[in-house]
Design goal:
The complex is a heterodimer of chains A (about 325) and B (about 550).
Chain A (H helix, E strand, L loop, with lengths): L2 E12 L2 E12 L3 E5 L6 H8 L7 E6 L8 H5 L2 E4 L11 H12 L4 H10 L13 H13 L5 E5 L7 H16 L3 E6 L2 H7 L2 E6 L2 E7 H7 L2 E7 L12 E7 L2 E6 L4 H10 L2 E7 L3 H14 L22
Parallel strand pairs in A: 3-7, 3-8, 5-6, 6-7
Antiparallel strand pairs in A: 1-2, 1-4, 8-9, 10-12, 10-13, 11-12
Helix pairs in contact in A: 3-5, 4-5
Chain B lengths: L20 H11 L3 H24 L2 H12 L1 H6 L11 H28 L1 H6 L1 H6 L7 H27 L4 H28 L3 H25 L11 H6 L10 H23 L23 H29 L1 H7 L5 H6 L6 H33 L2 H6 L5 H35 L3 H11 L2 H17 L8 H17 L3 H5 L16 H24 L6
Helix pairs in contact in B: 1-8, 2-5, 2-8, 5-8, 5-9, 5-10, 8-9, 9-10, 9-12, 13-16, 13-18, 14-16, 16-18, 16-20, 16-21, 18-19, 18-23, 20-23
Classes of the chains: A alpha/beta (about 325), B mainly alpha (about 550).
C-alpha cells in the first residue's frame, strides 16, 4: 500500500494565530480518508498547503510522491479540488465553468459530465452569479468528478447540498472509490464520513488527535450498554472501567471500556438481565471525547487559520 | 420608528410600504459614517483648492484676461460649460465656468454609487432579504436611500457654499452654484434609483447610471459648443441645468427647479416599481447562457481574455469616440490657441506647431487613460485572488506565473488595442478637418510610442501585487503624478527630477517631438524588470484573502 499524502510536523501560522501545530497526516493511496474537525481546527489550511496555495512554516509534506509547493503544476495534473467556499466568475454560466475547470485539469469526460449534471440536477445555463451556494458547490463537484484525477481533495464539499444531493454525492464517491480513487474528505458531517471513509483523522487545534480505521477506533473506545434487570444491579459503580453510570431502579445505562466488558456483563447476568442493548461508540461520541470540553467550557471558541467561525459540531440523526 | 414616508403609499394593494424608513435611514447613516463625510470633505477640499489656488496663480484680474481665450474657445465649451460672463472675466466666473462642471460630475458620481450601494447591491448580496423579513416595508430601503442622498447632497451644498463665501466669493453666486451641485447630485441619484430597478446586478446598475452621466456630459458639451452660452441641445442635459444658473453673473434659480422635478419623477417611478416587483427581480433579468463552454475556453489565458473583454471594449469604444471628436476639433484649436499665453502653450510643447502639439497632448491623455485601464486590470487580478476565485484555477495544472502572466498579457494586448484605436481615430478625425491624411499614421505611432511608459507604470502595480498585495493601491500615486506632470508640469517650475519620475515624461510627445529610441528601451527594461519581480514574488508567497 503506497502513501498518497504524508505530512509530518506541519506548522503554519497566520500572524499570531497558529493554524497548524505539528500536524501528522497520512493518507494511503486508494482510500477514502475522512478529515474531521470543527471549523477553525485547521482543515482548510491543511488542504491549501497540500495544494501549494500556502507554504508550510515548518514540517514535511509529500503529496503523490512530490512536494506540493515546488511541484504544484505537475501534481495538479493528477488531482482535483473542491473548495469549501466555492467562488465562481459571476458572468460565466455553470456549464461554461464546469468545462473550463475540467479542461484546465487536463480534460473531462463529456458523457460523464452531462450525466453528473443530470444526477446532481444542475441546470448549467444560468450565470454563476445567480447560483446558490449549493449550486456553486455542484459546479465544482461535477468538474472534479468528471475528470480523471487520481486524488480528490474535498473541503466540506456538501455543506450547501440537501440530503438527496448528499446521497448522490456519496454514490458518486463510492463508484469512483471502487476504481481506486484516493479521496481526502474534509468534513464535519459525521454521517457522511461514517458512510464513506475507510479511515479517519480527527484534527483539533492544528494537530491530529486520533487516526485510524473507524472500526479500529471503535475498538479503542467504550461500548454503551442499556439494560433492564430483575433486581437492581448494585455495585456496578465499583467495577473498574465503567463510566457515566445512570441507574434508575432496574434500568441501567453506562459506558464500559472494551477490556472490562466481560466483567460488566457478568455483573448484569447476576442481577438477572431481561433486556440488553449494546452499541459501539458513534463517531459523534468519539469526536465529543476530543471536543467535549470546548462545547461545555466557558471559552468555547477557538479561532484559527483561514476559517474563522466558532467551532460547531454537526450530528445529523446519530 | 415606523413613520411612513409621505407619498409612498401608492396604490399597489400593499400597505405600510414605507414602514421602517426612519430606522433604516439611521442604519444607513451609521454604515456610511466614514464614506459620506469623506466624499463631502473631498468636494469641500476641491472647492477650497480652487478658491485658494486661482487667485494665487492669476493674482490680478489682468492676468486672468490672458487665459480668456481658453475659456471662451471651443475647448472651454467642451470641457467647461456655457461660459457666462466671460466678457468681463473674474476669478469666480472662471472657476465656475471652467471647473464647476467637475463638481457636478463628482456629486453625480457620489450619488450614483450611494444609491446603487444601498439598493441593488444589497439585493444582489442577499442582505436585503434579511431586512425584508423584518418589519420593513417594500419601499423603505429605497426611500431611506433617497433621503440619505438628499441629506448627503445638502451637506455638500452647505460645505461648498461655506468654503466659497469664507474665501470672499459673493454670497448669491456661491449659493446658486453650490445648490446646483446638490441638484445635479440628486438628479443622478434619481437616475441611479431607476437604473437599480432596471438591471439585476449592482455593476450593471452603476454602469447604466454612469452611461447616462456620460451621455449628459457629451450632450451638453456639443450643445455648449454649437451656441454661445449653450444651445437648446444643452438644455437636454441635467448637467446643463446647474450650469445655466449664471452663477456670479446674474443669478437665476429656476433651472434648478428642472433638476428637482426630474429627481422627484425618477424617485416616484423607482419607488412605484420597487413596491410592485419581486425582491431580486429586474426589468432586464439575467438570461440563461450556453450550457457548454466554447471550444476556445480551455486555458487560464482564455479565461482572462473572457473576463477582461468587457472592460477592454468598454474602454476602447469611448477612447475611439473621443478620438474622433478631439481629432475633429483640431482646426478650431489651431485657430483659437494661437494667441494663448506662453506658459499655457508650454504644456503643449510650445507655439511653433500648435496643431501637432495639441495632438501630442491628446496622445498623452489617451496614454494616461490606458495606464488607468492597465492598473485596474492588475486590481482585477488581485480581486480574483481576494475573492478566492483564483484558488480553483491554481488547483489545476496552471502555474502562478502562467496565470498572472496570462492575465497581464491580456491587459497588455488590451492596452495596445486602446492606443491603436486612440491614435487611429484621433488621426482620422484630424485628417478629415486638416486634409492631411499622413496624420492617421503619424498619430497611431505617436500613441503606440507611449506603450513602454504604460508598461513601466503598470509594472509598479505588478511588483506591488507580488510583494505587498494589500498595498496595491499605492501604485495610483504613479498615475496621478504622471497626470499632474503631463498637464501642469511645465507650469509649475519644478526641479527636473520631479518631472523625470513620471515614465510618461520620457516617451517622446510625437508628432511634435522626434522619435527617440533610448528612453523607450530604458522604460521597457524597467517595466520588464518590475514585472519579473512581481511574478517571482507572487509565485513565492501565500495566496491572501482580503
Amino acid at each position: 500500500m503506497t502513501t498518497a499524502i504524508l505530512t509530518a510536523g506541519l506548522v503554519k501560522s497566520f500572524g499570531r494565530t497558529r493554524a497548524l501545530d505539528g500536524l501528522d497526516l497520512e493518507v494511503a493511496a486508494g482510500e477514502v480518508h475522512g478529515f474531521l474537525g470543527p471549523n477553525g481546527a485547521g482543515k482548510t489550511t491543511t488542504l491549501r498547503i497540500l495544494l501549494g496555495l500556502l507554504r508550510a512554516d515548518a514540517g514535511r509534506v509529500e503529496l503523490l510522491g512530490g512536494d506540493p509547493w515546488t511541484d504544484a503544476v505537475a501534481l495538479h495534473r493528477r488531482l482535483a479540488y473542491v473548495p469549501g467556499d466555492v467562488e465562481l466568475w459571476p458572468n460565466l454560466t455553470g456549464g461554461e465553468t464546469i468545462d473550463l475547470l475540467g479542461r484546465l485539469q487536463g480534460g473531462l469526460d463529456r458523457r460523464r459530465r452531462d450525466e453528473l449534471c443530470e444526477r446532481f440536477r444542475l441546470d448549467p445555463t444560468p450565470k454563476c452569479r445567480t447560483y446558490s451556494k449549493g449550486n456553486r458547490q455542484k459546479v465544482a463537484l461535477i468538474a472534479a468528478l468528471a475528470g480523471d484525477a487520481e486524488l480528490l481533495l474535498l473541503d466540506e464539499p456538501t455543506a450547501g447540498l440537501d440530503p438527496l444531493m448528499e446521497a448522490v454525492f456519496q454514490d458518486c464517491i463510492r463508484e469512483r472509490a471502487i476504481d481506486g480513487l484516493t479521496v481526502l474528505l474534509s468534513s464535519h458531517i459525521l454521517a457522511q464520513v461514517e458512510a464513506l471513509a475507510d479511515r479517519i483523522s480527527i484534527v483539533r487545534h492544528g494537530r491530529i488527535v486520533e487516526t485510524g480505521a473507524l472500526a479500529e477506533l471503535r475498538h479503542l473506545a467504550r461500548t454503551t450498554i442499556v439494560a433492564d434487570t430483575d433486581v437492581p444491579s448494585a455495585g456496578l459503580e465499583r467495577l473498574p472501567g465503567v463510566h457515566h453510570l445512570d441507574v434508575d431502579g432496574t434500568h441501567v445505562r453506562f459506558e464500559v471500556d472494551r477490556d472490562r466488558l466481560a466483567a460488566a456483563m457478568q455483573h448484569l447476568t447476576d442481577a438477572g438481565v431481561r433486556a440488553i442493548t449494546a452499541h459501539p461508540p458513534t463517531l459523534e461520541q468519539m469526536l465529543l471525547r476530543h471536543y467535549g470540553d470546548e462545547l461545555t467550557g466557558p471559552d468555547a471558541v477557538a479561532v484559527e487559520g483561514a476559517d474563522d467561525d466558532p467551532p460547531t459540531v454537526d450530528h445529523p440523526g446519530r | 420608528m415606523t413613520a411612513a414616508t409621505p407619498g409612498l403609499s401608492v396604490a399597489t394593494g400593499r400597505t405600510e410600504v414605507g414602514t421602517g424608513t426612519g430606522a433604516l435611514l439611521r442604519f444607513l447613516l451609521r454604515r456610511d459614517r466614514v464614506k459620506l463625510p469623506a466624499w463631502t470633505a473631498s468636494i469641500g477640499a476641491f472647492a477650497l483648492y480652487y478658491a485658494v489656488a486661482l487667485p494665487a496663480i492669476f493674482g490680478t484680474e489682468g492676468d486672468l484676461s490672458s487665459v480668456a481665450p481658453i475659456a471662451t474657445g471651443p475647448v472651454g465649451a467642451l470641457f467647461g460649460g456655457p461660459g457666462y460672463g466671460y466678457d468681463e472675466l473674474t476669478i469666480e466666473r472662471f472657476m465656475v465656468g471652467q471647473y464647476g462642471l467637475y463638481f457636478l460630475l463628482t456629486a453625480a458620481l457620489m450619488s450614483i454609487l450611494l444609491v446603487v450601494r444601498h439598493t441593488r447591491a444589497e439585493e444582489q448580496q442577499g442582505r436585503a432579504e434579511l431586512l425584508g423579513a423584518t418589519v420593513v416595508g417594500a419601499a423603505a430601503p429605497l426611500g431611506a436611500t433617497l433621503i440619505l442622498a438628499v441629506i448627503t447632497n445638502a451637506a455638500v451644498v452647505v460645505v461648498v457654499a461655506a468654503v466659497l463665501v469664507v474665501n470672499g466669493y459673493a454670497v448669491a453666486g456661491s449659493a446658486v452654484f453650490a445648490v446646483g451641485i446638490g441638484a445635479a447630485g440628486l438628479t443622478f441619484a434619481g437616475v441611479a434609483a431607476v437604473a437599480a430597478q432596471v438591471t439585476s446586478t449592482s455593476r450593471s446598475a452603476a454602469g447604466l447610471a454612469g452611461a447616462a452621466l456620460g451621455v449628459a456630459f457629451v450632450v451638453r458639451a456639443v450643445g455648449d459648443l454649437i451656441g454661445e452660452n449653450g444651445s437648446l441641445l444643452s438644455w437636454l442635459s441635467p448637467l446643463a441645468w446647474s450650469q445655466q444658473t449664471r452663477a456670479f453673473v446674474d443669478e437665476r434659480w429656476w433651472p434648478l427647479g428642472l433638476s428637482l422635478l426630474v429627481f422627484g419623477v425618477l424617485a416616484a417611478v423607482a419607488l412605484r416599481t420597487v413596491t410592485r416587483r419581486d425582491l431580486g427581480a429586474a426589468l432586464l433579468g439575467t438570461r440563461p447562457g450556453p450550457a457548454h463552454a466554447a471550444p476556445g475556453l480551455r486555458s487560464a489565458v482564455a479565461l482572462s481574455a473572457r473576463l477582461q473583454r468587457p472592460a477592454i471594449i468598454g474602454w476602447a469604444v469611448p477612447i475611439g469616440l473621443g478620438g474622433l471628436m478631439y481629432g475633429g476639433i483640431t482646426r478650431t484649436i489651431d485657430d483659437s490657441f494661437a494667441d494663448m499665453p506662453e506658459e499655457m502653450l508650454a504644456v503643449m510643447g510650445g507655439g511653433e506647431d500648435l496643431l501637432r502639439g495639441y495632438l501630442g497632448t491628446m496622445g498623452f491623455f489617451t496614454a494616461l487613460l490606458v495606464c488607468v485601464f492597465a492598473l485596474l486590470a492588475v486590481h482585477a487580478a488581485r480581486g480574483e485572488e481576494a475573492a478566492g476565485r483564483v484558488e480553483v484555477v491554481l488547483a489545476t495544472p496552471t502555474s502562478r506565473v502562467g496565470w498572472l502572466g496570462g492575465h497581464l498579457a491580456v491587459a497588455g494586448l488590451g492596452s495596445v488595442v486602446m492606443l491603436v484605436v486612440g491614435g487611429l481615430t484621433l488621426g482620422v478625425g484630424a485628417a478629415i478637418v486638416t486634409d492631411d491624411p499622413a496624420l492617421v499614421w503619424e498619430l497611431t505611432v505617436a500613441h503606440l510610442v507611449h506603450l513602454p511608459a504604460v508598461l513601466a507604470i503598470t509594472a509598479v502595480g505588478v511588483a506591488l501585487f507580488g510583494l505587498a498585495p494589500r498595498a496595491l493601491g499605492l501604485a495610483w500615486v504613479v498615475v496621478v503624478h504622471a497626470g499632474i506632470m503631463g498637464f501642469f508640469g511645465p507650469l509649475m517650475d519644478l526641479p527636473g527630477w520631479v518631472e523625470g519620475l513620471s515614465p510618461l515624461e520620457h516617451s517622446p510627445r510625437m508628432p511634435l517631438a522626434p522619435f527617440t529610441a533610448t528612453p523607450l528601451l530604458v522604460l521597457s527594461a524597467v517595466g520588464a524588470a518590475l514585472v519579473a519581480v512581481g511574478l517571482r514574488a507572487f509565485a513565492a508567497r501565500d495566496l491572501r484573502g482580503r
